[in-house]
Each structure stands twice: as C-alpha cells, then as structure tokens.
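To the wet lab folks,

You asked to see what we're planning to order before we commit. Fair enough. Below is the target structure as tokens, and below that is the sequence we designed to fit it. If anything looks off to you, flag it before the synthesis order goes out.
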C-alpha cells in the first residue's frame, strides 16, 4: 500500500504528512515546522521520513501536543540524534519516561516509542523569528492534550483536539465532558487558522471548532435522552451513529462508535 507521505506549506509553516498505511486521515499524522521549532514528531515507524525532513535545517525545540505514539513517538530520537530540546505537556512527561500500554493495532500502524525524559512545556515560549507559542491545556482526547497558540498570527496548533467537526468514533479512554469543556475554552481564544495533526490546515478554524463543540453537545444530549428512555448502548449507537466500521474491528473496539456513546453515559452503562 502506498505511503501517504507528502509535504505542504501555509503562511510560512511547513507540514510533513507521514504514515505507513493509507487508511484515512487518522492513520497518518502531520509534523509541523516553524523555523527552528517543530510541533509533534510523527509515528515511530516513520522516523526515516521524519528525520530526512527535519535534517533540512537546525531544529532547536520540539513541542509535543500529547503523549500518543503518533505525536510524541519520535521524541527520544529527536533528542538523541538531532540534539533538539523536546517539550511535553507537564502531565505527559512521566508517560514519555515510563511508557504506556499500546494495543497491537497501535504498534502495527504507528510503532512503539522509545522512552526518554522530555522537558515540561512552560506556559509560554519565544521560539525565534518573532513567534511566541502559548500552551493551552485542552484535556479530553487525552489527559495531557495541549494546543499551542501563536497569538500575533492567529494560529492554533491543535494536536488531536479537532480532527473533524463530526466525530463518529472515540478511543476507549477519551473523556467526553472534558473534551466539551476544552472546546468551549478554546473557541473563546483569538485565532483563525487551525493546524490539525490529522486534518491539516483548516483556514476557518474558529468556525470548525465551534461546529465540533455544538455537534458534541447536541449528540451528548440525544444519547443521554435515549438512554433515559431505557435504550441500550448498542441500540443508541446504531440509531445515532450507524453500524460499526472496519476500523472498530481492527482496533478490537478500542476506537469505535460505541465508545463515543459510552463516553456520554455513567461509567457502567450498558
Ligand atoms: Zn491522540
């Protein structure tokens, strides 16, 4: 299967999309470069492609949006081979140091990160070229999920906060209420362009984030309403999101529609 790697640019920000399989936007991931600053590191099994891209110029610092293997997975190599300073969100530092469980599909699609000790990202950082990046903690997709805001330019690097305005699938460990609160906070920030790690550049970024917020709030309401009428998770999933897809089977339902429904209900709902 062809590798989906390719590069692109927008307003001086360079992007490299990389991934082993062409299975849709979630299976590939984008490394962004802003002068000597890199945001996210790509999947471990794509290191040769990422390294070639990053060796084109000096890398001084790397800001990782969250610990997941397709985002922080090459942090150790960037630190050791390219001698860059790698920053993780503070709550992701121990996960990079101690490791975290990966399912078989994650190891196959993205590979296994090497453990290392990153620096904790401060609240704000000058990164050269007149740019300042502010960390905006936005948990829900993961506890350490953090966006980076360039206030002057109105850029928001969103990691996995956005991806799509209408998600149908959730990881088993995503938190819906936290995600909605994070979107609510982020949508009030001053920005226009979203640099999403999977979707790419979203020029009407504020509107896109607002659309996702509205969609998740009304979907959560509908799911809770149906559940209060005695409908099961399976029935609600089929009614509101349709049948599970191949992705759900490949991931043994770790990434599935039913997880999105469960994330809206009390912990032990069936
Ligand atoms: Zn993620």
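Sequence we intend to order:
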């Amino acid at each position: 299967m062809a590798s989906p790697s390719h590069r692109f640019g927008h307003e001086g920000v360079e992007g490299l999309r990389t991934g082993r399989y062409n299975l849709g936007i979630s299976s590939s991931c984008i490394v962004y470069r802003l002068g000597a600053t890199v945001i996210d590191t790509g999947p471990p099994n794509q290191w040769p492609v990422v390294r070639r891209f990053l060796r084109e110029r000096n890398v001084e610092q790397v800001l990782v949006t969250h610990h997941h293997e397709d985002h922080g997975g090459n942090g150790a190599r960037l630190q050791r081979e390219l001698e860059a300073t790698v920053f993780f969100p503070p709550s992701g530092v121990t996960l990079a140091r101690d490791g975290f469980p990966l399912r078989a599909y994650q190891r196959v699609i993205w590979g296994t990160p090497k453990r290392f000790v990153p620096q904790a990202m401060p609240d704000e950082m000058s990164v050269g070229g007149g740019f300042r990046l502010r960390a905006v903690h936005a948990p829900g997709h993961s506890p350490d999920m953090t966006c980076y805001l360039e206030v002057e330019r109105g850029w928001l690097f969103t990691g996995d906060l956005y991806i799509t305005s209408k998600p149908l699938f959730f990881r088993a460990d995503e938190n819906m209420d936290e995600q909605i609160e994070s979107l609510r906070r982020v949508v009030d920030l001053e920005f226009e362009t979203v640099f999403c790690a999977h979707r790419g550049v979203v020029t009407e970024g504020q509107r896109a984030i607002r659309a996702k917020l509205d969609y998740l709030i009304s979907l959560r309401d509908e799911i809770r309403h149906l559940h209060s009428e005695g409908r099961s998770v399976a029935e609600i999933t089929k009614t509101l999101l349709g049948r599970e897809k191949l992705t759900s089977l490949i991931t043994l339902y770790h990434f599935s529609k039913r997880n999105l429904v469960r994330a809206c209900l009390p912990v032990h709902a069936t």
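Structural context that might help your review: The mean pLDDT is 95. The pocket of zinc ion is lined by residues 66, 68, 71, 141-142, 160 (CB under 6 Å).

Thanks,
Computational group
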